[in-house]
């Protein structure tokens, strides 16, 4: 019994050391609504993990706790060796350079051109570069998503799929180690959704990023995931590859793959 | 002449009626409404308090402040100027018959200039700005909030409160007084035209009378209060937008309530300013 506990403990420490994100016993409630209950989660380097769960199950809350947009009620959120809830504003900014976030609604700044949208994170994170270097970085990020010609357009002139790609380019411009995707294919047609999923894989290969992907789109899950985590009733209900979970006989898991 | 003598009984009855009226009002305005009113007031106070803690700290967003000052101030110039001109014109035309009745037509420039400079031009400017700028800020920040642009800003290493709120509040606080001074001037031109529609008042006579009438105590308090108008319009617009929720419906509500609350605050501040001016006997 003691040996088993010790082995589990050693495994846990090893996993924590390999993880770029380590979440342990995370609790988050809104009033009487308990969203996350002792939630445990790990993201290993170079891994694409999809978090699957029903709407309102706390998937977005989880990644907002990871990026420090929300404070957990209790528990540990460790990103690249830093305990997020304990960081001050400056320390949090330094971590955020290494963690990109693709918002569900794209969150492009309506009043800025595509170029200004992409330059914004560079200027705000005090990354001092001359005008030519900034321009090269902007064009590189846009070329990566196949939209170099939109550089001087306004977000309102772009389609949903193009906006998603531009948002991804803005996320990539700081060359993050980790990317958090909040429902990247929601609201897109199946073809564009597949294009975005493929793009996410290309990005992972090119920049060797690790990703947490929140998604309901089972095609996206199948295509991009190395591992799937089921978030049900506020806990990590199951974890495994897409193929492992698809053949699960558990009713709660099976529903998602029907 | 009729004297109304109140007996002790009737005084008691009046006091009783007053108390029972208050009780009825308190019952009508339920506890929930009081609770939400006090909670909202507390939130606005906290939001305003945050402005004073964030404002002096670096990093200073001069670029965004200038951009906002351009949009808030420069872009409102035509609207404020046209409205002020019309107000000056209308006030003069409306006042003339009454002054003629008392044989005091010669006092028209004096009366009009006092009304316009002390009260009408600053308050009308503030109300126009509450409508145009307050709703604009409420809607803009509200839509940024519901489309996660404010969160995106924070992730991009920006303090959204400093970047969005402090710059806008500073812009409204500093540009609305400039707009009010412009409105003062343009409204007097309107007054001059109004005085010459039915009568004949020479250019020199009109302006001599205006400048003879107006004293430091008329102009300074009226300009000083516009700084407070500007601050109130900015902070309420930002508060409503920054705390917007419930999607696009919430954005509309934010814009609407930003206008309602900031317009109301303009009158409350005006009332307080007039009382202070009166107590200090500035005019």
What secondary-structure arrangement, pairings included, does this model have?
The complex is a heterodimer of chains A (258) and B (283).
Chain A: H1 2-18, E1 19-30, E2 33-44, E3 48-52, H2 59-67, E4 74-79, E5 82-83, H3 89-98, E6 99-102, H4 114-124, H5 131-144, H6 160-172, E7 178-182, H7 190-207, E8 210-214, H8 218-224, E9 227-232, E10 235-240, H9 242-246, H10 251-257
Parallel strand pairs in A: 3-8, 3-9, 6-7, 7-8
Antiparallel strand pairs in A: 1-2, 1-4, 4-5, 9-10
Helix pairs in contact in A: 4-5, 4-6, 5-6, 6-7, 7-8
Chain B: H1 8-28, H2 31-54, H3 62-72, H4 77-101, H5 108-146, H6 149-155, H7 160-198, H8 203-213, H9 216-242, H10 247-279
Helix pairs in contact in B: 3-7, 4-5, 4-7, 5-7, 5-8, 5-9, 5-10, 7-9, 9-10
Query: If you average the pLDDT of chain A, what whole number results?
Result: 86
Q: Report the β-strand fraction of chain A as a percent range.
A: 15-25%
The number of distinct structural domains of chain B comes to: 1
Q: What gap, in angstroms, lies between the N and C termini of chain A?
A: 40 Å
The rounded distance between the terminal residues' Cα atoms of chain B is 36 Å
The CATH C-level name of chain A is Alpha Beta
* CATH-derived topology of chain A: Rossmann fold
Describe, in plain words, how this protein is organized in 3D.
- The complex is a heterodimer of chains A (258) and B (283).
- Chain A has 258 residues and is of the alpha/beta class.
- Chain A has one domain: 3-Layer(aba) Sandwich (Rossmann fold), CATH 3.40.50.
- Chain A is 43% helix and 24% strand.
- In chain A, the strands form two sheets. A six-stranded mixed beta sheet of chain A has the order 6-7-8-3-9-10, sandwiched between helices. Chain A has a four-stranded antiparallel beta sheet with strand order 2-1-4-5.
- In chain A, α5 packs across α6.
- The longest helix of chain A is centred in the last third of the chain and has 18 residues.
- The N terminus of chain A is likely disordered.
- Chain B has 283 residues and is mostly helical.
- Chain B has one domain.
- In chain B, 39% of the residues are buried.
- The N terminus of chain B is likely disordered.
- The chains are: A alpha/beta (258), B mainly alpha (283).
- The interface between A and B is medium-sized, with 21 and 14 residues.
């Amino acid at each position: 019994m003691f040996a088993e506990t010790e082995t589990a403990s050693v495994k846990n420490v090893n996993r924590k050391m390999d993880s770029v994100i380590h979440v342990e016993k995370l609790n988050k409630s809104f009033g009487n609504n308990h969203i996350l209950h002792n939630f445990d989660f790990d993201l290993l380097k170079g891994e694409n993990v999809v978090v699957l769960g029903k709407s309102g199950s706390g998937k977005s809350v989880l990644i907002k706790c990871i990026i420090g947009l929300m404070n957990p009620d209790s528990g540990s959120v460790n990103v690249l060796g830093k305990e997020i809830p304990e960081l001050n504003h400056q320390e949090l900014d330094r971590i955020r350079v290494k963690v990109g976030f693709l918002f569900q609604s794209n969150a492009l700044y309506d009043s800025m051109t595509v170029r200004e949208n992409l330059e914004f994170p560079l200027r705000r994170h005090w990354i001092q570069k001359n005008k030519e270097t900034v321009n090269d970085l902007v064009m590189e990020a846009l070329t990566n998503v196949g939209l170099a010609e939109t550089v001087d357009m306004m977000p309102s002139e772009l389609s949903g799929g193009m906006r998603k790609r531009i948002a991804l380019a803005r996320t990539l411009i700081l060359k993050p180690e980790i990317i958090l995707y909040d429902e990247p294919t929601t609201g897109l047609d199946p073809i564009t959704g597949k294009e975005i999923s493929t793009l996410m894989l290309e990005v992972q290969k090119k920049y060797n990023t690790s990703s947490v992907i929140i998604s309901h789109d089972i095609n996206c899950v199948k295509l991009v995931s190395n591992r799937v985590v089921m978030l049900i009733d506020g806990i990590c209900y199951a974890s495994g590859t897409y193929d492992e979970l698809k053949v699960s006989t558990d009713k709660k898991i099976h529903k998602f793959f029907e | 002449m009729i004297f109304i003598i109140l007996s002790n009984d009737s005084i008691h009855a009046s006091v009783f009626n007053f108390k029972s009226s208050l009780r009825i009002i308190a019952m009508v305005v339920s506890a929930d409404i009081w609770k939400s009113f006090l909670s909202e007031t507390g939130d606005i106070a906290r939001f305003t308090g945050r402005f004073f803690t964030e404002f002096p700290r670096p990093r200073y967003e001069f670029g965004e402040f200038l951009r906002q000052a351009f949009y808030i101030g420069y872009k409102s110039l035509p609207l404020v100027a046209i409205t002020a001109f019309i107000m000056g014109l209308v006030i003069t035309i409306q006042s003339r018959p009454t002054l003629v009745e008392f044989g005091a037509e010669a006092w028209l420039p004096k009366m009009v200039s006092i009304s316009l400079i002390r009260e009408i031009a600053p308050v009308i400017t503030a109300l126009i700005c509450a409508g145009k700028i307050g709703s604009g800020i409420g809607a803009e920040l509200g839509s940024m909030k519901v489309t996660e642009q404010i969160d995106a800003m924070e992730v991009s290493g920006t303090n959204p409160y400093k970047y969005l709120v402090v710059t806008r509040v500073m812009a409204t606080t500093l540009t609305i007084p400039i707009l009010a001074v412009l409105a003062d001037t343009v409204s007097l031109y309107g007054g001059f035209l109004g005085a010459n529609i039915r009568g004949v008042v020479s250019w020199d006579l009109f302006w001599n009378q205006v400048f003879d009438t107006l004293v430091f105590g008329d102009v300074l308090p009226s300009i000083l209060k516009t700084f407070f108008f500007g601050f109130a319009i900015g902070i309420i617009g930002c508060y409503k937008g920054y705390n917007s929720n419930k999607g696009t419906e919430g954005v509309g509500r934010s814009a609407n309530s930003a206008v309602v609350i900031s317009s109301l605050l303009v009158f409350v501040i005006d009332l307080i300013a007039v009382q202070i001016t009166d107590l200090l006997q500035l005019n």
